[in-house]
Design goal:
With 288 residues, this protein is mainly β. Helices cover 2% and strands 68% of the residues. It contains 1 helix and 15 strands; from the N terminus they run H-E-E-E-E-E-E-E-E-E-E-E-E-E-E-E. The chain has one helix spanning 2-7; strands spanning 18-27, 33-48, 53-68, 84-96, 101-113, 125-136, 147-156, 161-175, 178-184, 186-192, 197-218, 221-241, 245-262, 268-273, 277-287. A 14-stranded antiparallel beta barrel has the order 1-2-3-4-5-6-7-8-9-10-11-12-13-15. Strand 12 and strand 13 (245-262) form a beta hairpin. The chain is globular and about 65 Å long.
Length: 288
């Protein structure tokens, strides 16, 4: 369980390498449930004098739509559980240390809500944070097998697990055409057709948590949050345009899906969907 909740921390440090990103994800309709997410991310790096350090300021916005089928009666108004808006403010700092290590710190306050009320409340506010140490030797031409190691801790209220989780990532290119990344929050095996074309076999967990303004009254309590967790595996194709632009498409099989309504104590009240199926995603990235 600890491994799965660690994977849930999708606010990865690597996202700070993105100057801008457009991300569209769709889970095609199962018998009674469909999900799509449109995401925009922007980061602005600021070089600080004399310390080989940077400050990053950014915004991460998502619009999430949930479509409920008519096959199963729902004990709630489906209009109250749709149109979720997520907006995070990224504030991050990175500084070079000794022996090629780098420190990374990030604080991410944000809102996640269905915005059905006239104003925001503190229940709509979520906080996340990361503290990591990075040793990046991916571009070291003196090494026969370049690598990158990231060690740290991650915390995120926005994924339904309000306690610190380990953050571990080990990347190595072990062949001119092959590399891998082991750890949490993601694991993959990558084949490099060329500098521009790559194919990844990956496994990860995705999802979101959002506040339900005014709550939804059920037979066993009042639901104040919606939580969706996905365990995914699949293939991703990447096309790199120069060193700073990347387009990728992926198809995933959902090994496990749980969409739950939760009370204020994060206890599950109602399972909305637990079906398997496919997930499709397309991403356009502009990188540092």
């Amino acid at each position: 369980m600890l491994l799965l909740t660690s994977i849930m921390s999708v606010s990865t440090w690597g996202q700070l390498g993105d100057l801008a990103r457009i991300d569209y994800t769709i889970l095609p309709s199962s018998a009674d449930f469909e999900f799509n997410r449109l995401r925009f991310l922007f980061n602005y790096p600021i070089k600080l004098d004399g310390k080989q350090s940077y400050l990053f300021l950014g915004l991460d916005y998502s619009n999430i739509n949930v479509i409920y089928g008519s096959g199963t009666p729902r004990p709630f108004d489906i209009e109250d559980l749709n149109g979720f808006q997520l907006l995070d403010l990224n504030i991050a700092y990175t500084q070079k240390l000794r022996n090629d290590w780098r420190l990374g710190l990030r604080f991410t306050p944000g809102i996640s809500s269905n915005l059905r009320a006239d104003e925001l409340t503190f229940d709509d506010v979520f906080f996340s944070g990361d503290a990591v140490f990075i040793k990046d030797k991916k571009d070291d031409t003196t090494l026969k097998r370049p690598y990158r190691l990231i060690l740290g801790v991650s915390y995120s209220q926005n994924r339904g697990f309000p306690f610190p989780l380990p953050f571990v990532s080990y990347y190595r290119k072990f062949h001119p055409n092959w590399s891998f990344n082991l750890g949490v929050p993601k694991t993959n095996l990558q084949y490099h057709f060329s500098k521009q074309n790559r194919l990844k076999l990956f496994a990860q967990l995705d999802g979101f948590t959002s506040n339900i303004q005014s709550g939804v009254t059920l037979d066993n309590g009042v639901a104040e949050q919606i939580n969706m967790s996905l365990i995914l595996t699949g293939l991703q194709y990447e096309y790199h345009i120069g060193d700073h632009v990347e387009f990728s498409v992926r198809t995933s099989y959902i090994l496990d899906r749980n969409v739950n309504l939760r009370d204020s104590n994060n206890d599950d009240l109602l399972l909305i969907d637990d079906s398997n199926g496919l997930s499709l995603r397309a991403v356009l990235r502009f990188k540092i």
